[in-house]
Amino acid sequence: MTSFDRIVIIFNPQSTGNAPESAGELRDELAQRLPGVPLELSPTQHAGHARDLARKAAGTGSPLIVSVSGDGGYNEVVNGVMDAGNDRAVCAVRAAGNANDHRRVTRERHLADAIVAGEVRRMDLLRLTVGSGPGAMVRFAHSYIGVGLTPVVAVDLEKGGKGSWREIVSVVRGFSRFRPFPIRLEDGRRRRIDSLVFANIAEMAKYAKLSEAGAPDDGRFEVITQRQTGKLRVLATVIRAATRGLGPQPSATHYAFTPLAPMPLQLDGELVELDADIPVAVDIAPLALATIF
Fold first, then answer.
1. In terms of Cα–Cα distance, which of 202, 225, 34 is closest to 111?
2. Where is the domain boundary, 58, 85, 119?
3. pLDDT tens digits for 77-135?
4. pLDDT of 52 above 80
5. What pairs with residue 284 in β-bridges?
6. Please, which residues bridge with residue 145 across strands?
7. What CATH code is carried by the domain that includes residue 94?
8. In terms of Cα–Cα distance, which of 200, 217, 221, 177 is closest to 268?
9. What are φ and ψ of residue 214, in 5° steps?
10. Which of 125, 165, 187, 210 would you label with 30, given CA atoms 20 to 30 Å apart?
11. What are phi and psi of 105, to 5 degrees?
């Protein structure tokens, strides 16, 4: 059981979903049920601002920082809390926007009930390192990191806009233009991949079931690899993931590769451009984040 010295609710006022209304409803409910806890609504002003707001909020004391957002917005908040380095800071997420796979998969109760109960648990994060040495970029992911088909489709979604019919058109367009990406593994072997996903949860993209046993607190991540097979087999894999699931997948605590051509990477819905010949590593950060489900 944990008591919070304040609760900060971060949301995007320009969200295409209901984030402003949802954030206000959560604040009003918590104000009634936790009258002695200070509450703050913290709207973002631009892309990346949620990370700055979360870093500041997590800097002192024992705050609960709630992201009312999709997966990408929550990723910013998680990274801001990790930047602050305060083990007493706790994160939570209330789903809003286009999709929040993390909340959908990990939810155990109504969020306000979980906050009032104050039962804090710790979960693993995926740590992405791009480059090496002091200049390396380090980012964390709460749910998944993917290269190949997944971020290619995501790029087209951003260009085409969100909404059911637009999503369908964007997915078809991304699939039709997709080309496999060449990578070099840590042991020197070369591969051409259609898709490579590192998963901290068992599902992604609203419907796809990636593995049978993935859990966000088991100290490992699942590695879902599809080498170059041709578009029909890629399509068959996508359909299988969306219907009966991909079945058991290998797991790891570390995976490293070097892209041999520029390629997009998706980090909990956020897009990162990878340059050729810059090493990339994914590692588990065991029980790195305090959270409420």
1. 34
2. 119
3. 999 999 999 999 999 998 876 556 555 566 668 889 999 998 899 999 999 999 999 99
4. yes
5. 126
6. 198, 267
7. 3.40.50.10330
8. 200
9. -65, 135
10. 125
11. -80, -40
